[in-house]
Amino acid sequence: MLFALSSMALETKSTATFLTQAKQELRILSAELWARPRSGASVAAMAAVRESVQDLLSAPAGSILVIRYPGGEEGSLWAEELHVWLISLGVDAELMDLRPGSSEPDQIELYIE
Q1: Containing H/E element for 27?
Q2: How far apart are CA 34 and CA 42, in angstroms?
Q3: Sign of the alpha-carbon dihedral angle for 16, 28, 89, 85
Q4: Of 26, 51, 75, 99, which has the most beta carbons under 10 Å away?
Q5: 65 near 56, Cβ under 8 Å?
């Protein structure tokens, strides 16, 4: 598994780490990038995905990866597919939350909350 989450990685972090985490970046996954042929390795190599999962691994316990997607059926299907890929790569489904309402119709926004 490329993104195996260990309980040790999600243990309570110091206050300094928590403050750093509160300033977490918004990562953008474009429709153009997603339109390319996908495999487990290619999804894991996408910078927005890889960096978001790394952020999640270093986040305080109780943090989640928010997947904010464009509204409508197409956006919903895109987000669900990304969600399934992340699960297949070892990210616990309970650590992700899919939400409609990305700021642009051709992108998914990823961030830690």
Answers
A1: strand 27-30
A2: 10
A3: positive
A4: 75
A5: yes
* H and E: helices and strands count for the chain: 5, 4
Flag whether pLDDT at 112 surpasses 80.
yes
**pLDDT digit string (tens) for 36-73?**
999 999 999 999 999 999 999 999 999 999 999 999 99
Structure tokens at 89: 């790569």
Q: Phi first, then psi: what are they for 93, rounded to 5°?
A: -55, -30
Q: Which CATH number, 3.30.1130.10, 3.30.1330.60, 3.40.50.1000, 3.40.50.720, labels domain 25-112?
A: 3.30.1330.60
Question: Can you tell me the distance from the alpha carbon of 58 to that of 12, in angstroms, rounded to the nearest whole number?
Answer: 10
Residue 58's nearest CA partner among 109, 7, 9, 8 is 9
| Cβ atoms 99, 68 nearer than 8 A | yes
